[in-house]
Design goal:
single chain; Dihydroorotase; allantoinase activity; TIM Barrel; five-stranded parallel beta sheet; DHOase; EC 3.5.2.3; alpha/beta; four-stranded mixed beta sheet; 2 domains; 12 helices; Metal_Hydrolase; 20 strands; Urease, subunit C, domain 1; globular
Length: 426
């Protein structure tokens, strides 16, 4: 089937834009130009002078199925991704059952193949049941399609376990992706330790809870030669040690989430679960370090850490609520509005961090608008302003403090392998 997307704008080098049409055929980009009048297309879509980008790539989402379908399903979670402009998402393995064997992993894959509306790359766990010290069969899980290995949701507490896991991942040429959290430093914390935690009389989480485990892992990554990727970096100390490791030649990459780039603990005015996330919202100096880390290449990409929960379990105090915030449907809008519109980031940089780089660092065939590449394409409206409305979410989760915020950058259409999977007009 031949599809034409006409009258769009794409971002070229040096943050310039040019008007062009895209010819999509048989799941790939067959042409990029301004005159396809001699070709007969089966269907045409008018971009109406709006922005066309490669489909966004999110290397950190929680789809919750199997085991927690009241929070999210693969179908709803991928619909949410498409509504946010994402065409590829990488799903964490904190499920029930944990996909820690070939058989259980293939059960998750079957649901993905049946229900997903965007491309889903499934992580496998580092250890059995996530919290044990018994390594999974990395070779076997890689053979059935594991994207990478992670225990996201919990940190690997034993240095010995992490070392052995890294050695095995390096041998299998697989990335090891880490949620870094030294539980011996948690002390029951539920938000960043500082003046706000004291004011709300809530136990605080030390910055060292995250950064100390990153420092440990970077030494082990240097020793083993593994590709080590750090999830949702949140502290200035973490940025510092990752920067130093990169300068030393360690194969480390890192991501940051939109909420840590935009919000700080001082924004928290009440003891409510919508503000509870892990890692927590940090201090302003941490937020500034994250922005600087993105700009100087210490942090490689932006990932949502989309973590839906049921309404009742999040609509309560910090002490009772689970950690997590949804982000698939709001990430691009928030980043565009708060950083591109204000001149802090360029549009080219944002597309790089949200599409090009996440695909590049993990070797995913995605994230570019080039002839012969997958026809994963998104159209955004950068002009019209709207308010974030959780009643319009495709996700089952509405746990976000951003509801009601005015934003630009609405997704108009999302195409996966040339097929329209989201249309704002529908």
């Amino acid at each position: 089937m031949k599809t034409l997307i006409k009258n769009g704008k794409i971002v070229t080098k040096n943050n310039q834009t040019t008007t062009c049409d895209l010819w999509l055929e048989d799941g790939i980009i067959a042409g990029i130009g301004k005159d396809f009048s001699t070709i007969t297309f089966d269907q045409e879509y008018d971009a109406k002078n709006q922005l066309i980008t490669p489909g966004l790539v999110d290397v950190h989402v929680h789809l919750r199925e199997p085991g927690f379908t009241y929070k999210e399903t693969i179908k709803d979670g991928t619909k949410a991704a498409a509504r946010g402009g994402y065409t590829t998402v990488c799903a964490m393995p904190n499920l029930n059952p944990v996909p820690d064997t070939v058989e259980k992993f293939e059960q998750v894959k079957a649901i993905i193949e049946r229900d997903a509306v965007v491309k889903v790359l499934q992580y496998a766990p580092i250890t059995e049941e996530l919290r044990s010290e018994r390594l999974t069969d990395q070779k076997g899980l890689k053979a059935v399609g594991a994207f990478a290995f992670t225990n996201d949701g919990v940190g690997v507490q034993s240095a010995g376990t992490m070392y052995l896991a890294m050695k095995e991942a390096a041998k299998n040429k697989m990335a090891l992706v880490a949620h870094t959290e030294d539980e011996s430093l948690l002390f029951g914390g539920v938000m960043h330790k500082g003046e706000i935690s004291e004011k709300l009389q809530l136990p605080g989480i030390l910055s060292a809870t995250e950064s100390s485990q990153i420092a440990r892992d970077l030494i082990l990554a240097e020793e083993t030669g593994v590709h080590y990727h750090v999830c949702h970096v949140s502290t200035k100390e973490s940025v510092r040690v990752i920067r130093e490791a990169k300068q030393a030649g360690v194969h480390v990459t890192a991501e940051v989430s939109p909420h840590h780039l935009i919000l700080i603990d001082e924004n928290i005015t009440e003891d409510h679960g919508y503000w509870k996330m892990n890692p927590p919202l940090r201090a302003n100096e941490d937020r500034q370090a994250l922005i600087e880390g993105l700009l100087d290449g210490t942090i490689d990409c932006i990932a949502t850490d989309h973590a839906p929960h049921g309404f009742e379990e999040k609509n309560q105090s910090f002490l009772k609520s689970p950690f997590g915030i949804v982000g698939s449907e709001t990430a691009f809008q928030l980043i565009y509005t708060h950083f591109v519109e204000t001149g802090k980031f360029t549009l080219e940089q944002v597309i790089n961090w949200m599409a090009v780089k996440p695909a590049e660092i993990f070797g995913i065939k995605a994230g570019t608008l080039m002839i012969g590449q997958p026809a994963d394409v998104t159209i955004f409206d950068l002009e019209n302003e709207e308010k974030i409305d959780d009643e319009k979410f495709a996700s089952l989760g509405v746990n976000t403090p951003f509801t009601g915020w005015p934003v630009k950058g609405t997704t108009l259409m999302t195409f996966v392998d040339g097929q329209l999977v989201y249309n704002k007009e529908d």
